[in-house]
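Deviations from the work plan: none for this task. Representative record:
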Amino acid sequence: MPSTKLRNCIPTLLLLFLFCFLVSTSHGRRIRVTRNSTYHSDNSIVYLWPLPKHFTHGDQTLSVSPDLSLSLQGVGSNSSVVQEAFERYRDLIFKSWAQVGSTSEYDVSTLTVLVSSDDETLQFGVDESYILYLDGKQSGSIVGGATIEANTVYGALRGLETFSQLCVFNYDTKAVEVYNAPWYIQDEPRFAFRGLLLDTSRHYLPVKVIKEVIEAMSYTKLNVLHWHIIDEEAFPLEVPSYPKLWKGSYSKQERYAVEDAYDIVDFAKKRGIHVMAETDVPGHAESWGVGYPDLWPSENCTEPLDITKDFTFEVISSILSDMRKIFPFGIFHLGGDEVNTDCWNNTAHVKEWLTNHNMTTKDAYQYFVLKVQQIAIDLNLIPVNWEETFDNFGEKLNPLTVVHNWLGPGVCPKAVEKGFKCIVSNQGVWYLDHLDVPWEKFYTSEPLEGINNTDHHKLVLGGEVCMWGETADTSDVQQTIWPRAAAAAEKLWSPLEATTVNNLNQTILPRFQYFRCLLNNRGIAAAPVTNFYARRPPTGVGSCFEQ
Amino acid sequence: MPSTKLRNCIPTLLLLFLFCFLVSTSHGRRIRVTRNSTYHSDNSIVYLWPLPKHFTHGDQTLSVSPDLSLSLQGVGSNSSVVQEAFERYRDLIFKSWAQVGSTSEYDVSTLTVLVSSDDETLQFGVDESYILYLDGKQSGSIVGGATIEANTVYGALRGLETFSQLCVFNYDTKAVEVYNAPWYIQDEPRFAFRGLLLDTSRHYLPVKVIKEVIEAMSYTKLNVLHWHIIDEEAFPLEVPSYPKLWKGSYSKQERYAVEDAYDIVDFAKKRGIHVMAETDVPGHAESWGVGYPDLWPSENCTEPLDITKDFTFEVISSILSDMRKIFPFGIFHLGGDEVNTDCWNNTAHVKEWLTNHNMTTKDAYQYFVLKVQQIAIDLNLIPVNWEETFDNFGEKLNPLTVVHNWLGPGVCPKAVEKGFKCIVSNQGVWYLDHLDVPWEKFYTSEPLEGINNTDHHKLVLGGEVCMWGETADTSDVQQTIWPRAAAAAEKLWSPLEATTVNNLNQTILPRFQYFRCLLNNRGIAAAPVTNFYARRPPTGVGSCFEQ
């Protein structure tokens, strides 16, 4: 797509020209830097990301004991999910050298977490709400200390993340403190589907790296990992029913065993994150034929998959069955994008099949998609399909379909009008590989835009930012995702009123830069906020908070 | 330095122009990819980095039990350093889901580590040698299994790293295997000083990030972290004797408490890595005056430090004393580079002092450096100084001085001729912020070049790659350092014969690409090897092993 490439190229070149002359390559040069030491002293700025739905706060500073203990109560008090999460957050909140067994007085010594259900089922729409009270002992408050109340363990996880962001290490007192207390927070997400697409086909991402992405997602309350595992370039996943499929991997080492996939799903579940797998058909599937060349219509036509063979649908059905065991999420992505059917017409036996079935290639595309949808539905899955399926055959799609918008704006309004559910990923605003889309655009893109009938609002499940992997590998994936994905995370979690602001630079930017630095402190390679292009280096020296 | 900037700019622009047109921004495009599955089948390529000094191997494949246990023997058998390292390596070698309690037969079930000394002192020149035997039980070998023998725990650590690289996960058998066994390795470094400079002044790097850099260093057997903590832009370190010094930090949060520094030293020590601190004077010290403006000659002359005041030297002396407690490494960097003394001449009281002392500014520069050297020596430290000190006043330097070359080639030959010790960091080849220096140049730069008198060879302690921080922050520091620093790591560890090769692309490149992928698998954001410029994204889709 030349115009897209030009669009990306020329500004890049101009910026790089400017960048080059700014960068010093010596031991350093003298720059008068500004020093901003006033975080938290302005208590009109709330340094929580994403912004909670409801909150009040005060102006007191509370100290938090390095011996902070967890008191887990309620029906869900046996939850290892919460206990393990508390240990992870302890490590994030306190320095490794924090003094335990101290006899000093602290305002907050116990974190009480009350979970009213012991059901740890993680399915779409699970209750993620929580209440967080944080108060000093001396206030006479009934609750005192810090308390999180939630209906499920997953609400408790969201509360723990917010609590961890309230805790700030003070280098003067060398203690962890909470500013602007007491806090009363009542929080829940605006959208239930707050996703990140991760493409592990264009570049293999090691399991350790996928886990680091999931960990970072949990810091922003993103809750769906859309795992785009397979595509035309590589088939890295083990499929036990058809064990030659992963011969399509780049190499024997760039693979995911079934156990790796279970491991990732489990890791995500412990953070309240769903994993939505994708099996993209009939296009984007060239790699399937490395192990099973019969799936290719011919040696010269390696995509889309061969529609004429039962074998093709047997393989798809087995892949879905095998994946159904691994991925408990009830929503499954079947792809269906960018289907170029030209070589169906150019391959003799396919042409013959089309003629015999009285189908155009467009009819055949529809037939393929609907057939696979039914396989998924028979496996008790709700199918998601990329928007071309809706754009091309609209109401023929199974009514359960979730339409995944990506090509541009204005699609979800049409989809919900026809009664379909929808997910927003409009590439002009939420594609992370589009490096020229700034954080402000990620932040201000409203999923319900254009949907005037409020009854239809509930059909928009939410949205997803997409990290396509053509130029994203282990070396640069995290700083391509962050911090822009976090901007979308707030749009998806926080109330519409909170994220509809005019003066982003005054109201949102300081909070966003602070959060980027929090990600850095947690070891996440979030890129500078104020760069023109994504994933660029800082243009020069300076404080994290000002870049 | 305009010429340097132009040099960096124009090729960058041309490359970016080319890059832009190659990068796709759509859902993907069809590319025929090559699939290389033949790692380890060619047993003439040894996939160990850095290459051990002596080794022999066979052609057998051995399986390694997921229950692999450590048998720690010898005088050093109580070593928690080795036990903790073994646990870390277990996590790197085995999948988190590896089946324990398996009744299957494995060739290697125990790793025996014999350490002949219990002295865990980590000082320059500590014995890092080790012997590693890896053999199958059935071979009738006396030792069988896997054994590491070392004189010190630090040799054992080096052996553990090598052992971990021999262990490869096989996705077909889902077992960890060792190829081309049996292995007999006898290894020790060529140079004792194998360093990486990390600049945490131009950009603050969180403690977690510094630890990740240290962890990655341990994978390459680099053993000195030259911590360039402070510079003109920011003073992030706590100095208890002069607590206002860190008011020069970028912000209250971008600081290192004394306990953070101890923590980093301890983390490094557990990996056999020295931390060499730097206090760069009299230049590069503008940030010191934020807390103590008396250190500035005047409001308009904020660098170099005020030579006329006892206070200046009291502060330096106290900084060195405070740091001496934290940093046990006997070698300490005193900087001394890029000293622009113009404003000494332009500030009245300094000019007067120079006149009274009958000194030119150059004399004064020398006076300052030598005075500070003596302070360090009185603290039982061996001083390192950047080469300008040698270039400017040669033999006036204290005889204990280690000259740190950086400006270009040919300096160490002159320094060792005068009896000084030397460290090589020639910026044309070993500066990591010079993005146009490719891995081949890092690999082939010979520290002893130009030193014909072999008696002088021992005066070259080793070398250091330098990660200056002007454009390196948490978001991009790791992929700027790696993999090029690893190329230098092999030059510094492995024998000269091994690293002096003509056909790098055939002999070294496959091993280097493999190692880069190993770093990725361990979660280290090492950049593609074959890019023209450092820290660039992959230019397109593909296998890690081919990028």
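The two ends of chain B are 33 Å apart (CA to CA).
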